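Weekly modeling sync, notes
Attendees: S.R. (lead), two postdocs, one rotation student

Agenda item 3: backlog of single-chain predictions. S.R. asked that every request posted to the team notebook include the full sequence so nobody has to chase files. The rotation student volunteered to paste the first one in as an example of the format we agreed on. Action items at the bottom.

Example entry:
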Amino acid sequence: MQVYRGMDIGTAKATPEERRRVPHHLIDLADPDEDYSVARFRADAAAVLSELTERGRRVLMVGGTGLYLRAVIDQLDLPGQWPEVRAHLEAEADALGVAALHARLAAMDPVAAARAEPSNRRRVVRALEVCVGAGRPFSSFGPGLSVYPPTSFGLLGLNRSRAELGERIARRYREQMAAGFLDEVAGLAGRPAGLSRTARQALGYRELLAHLEGDMGLDQALDEAIRRTRAFARRQQAWFGRDPRIRWLDPEGNLVSVATEALGEWWG
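Predicted structure, as returned to the notebook:
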């Protein structure tokens, strides 16, 4: 979500001072009214990696959105997009519910259906969009996410407990609200073009938008944002926990020692 211009506080985007000290890439690439796909991210990341490699630079990729990371490091075979098909499926989801679409996906592509939770609207709609638009199963693109091929990237993870993550998430929301998160969302909502379907789903933004639109109180919106972010963190732990290529580090030790361990092999 840091690809979106103006979505700064809620995405914990690096500050201007931090970006002056260390060059950052793949930030502020799109207006918030644009849909930004994983295929576009993979292409943008490949261009940056190629350019920096030619200059003799090495890259530290930082992030937590598993599919986007895998798309880059494993060069996933990604299907195209069919907006008209997706719009029709979104209307069906509104009328019939996501469970009905998941049942339809199970009939068309049982493998993809088994990989998507019946309540995960975005994944179910996307899988069906590809099945219908491409005329082939969504699961037929690439070897699948359950395969972990060799990669030239060294993968490192910080291993925090679920309880600590939950507390840090709540604290970060308090800090973001104090920094003007609600005003940021109000400004984005007031843009003539509004926010795209993709941008509106960002953690915290969706809930504050609901508050500004009169659907829930501010305290309720924050509670829901914290709940949804904690659920996302659990999915992150499960996603990355399946990848045998990741070397896990204890972030509670001396930070210099952790950094040395993380980067020592890279520097070497």
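Discussion: group reviewed the output briefly. The CA atoms of residues 111 and 128 lie 12 Å apart.
Action items: rotation student to repeat for the remaining queue; S.R. to check formatting next week.
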